[in-house]
Predict the 3D structure of the following.
Amino acid sequence: MSAAAKLPGGSAGFGLIEVALAVTVASIGILGAAGVVLGIGSQARLAALDTDRTLAGRGVMQGLVREGHAAATSGAGIAEVGGRRHDVSRAVTTRSPRLRHVQVTITPPLGPDAAFEILLARERPMPVAP
């Protein structure tokens, strides 16, 4: 005689082990899908944070280029991008009378810092025509 119970009409049903195995497989699949969804959300938050840091750094760098060699000084400030405030610090070292090396560090509210570097050169005077 078979281990599966006979239903009225002579057809066999599912055993307890088969049902338990099906529930286990289904729960593993649901947990895996939930993990993928959470991972995608986490990656999207990190991408948004990277974008904000990059935009903040780009704004500071554009300001440095616009202000020029003489205005490049060390200091700290705030940059607001995407509704988030980022701490900004500038470290300036003079490599020669014509070159200044500026390192900009962007510190977001959450996550790691981002560092950008730029060399600013003093403009050379145009030669005078003879």
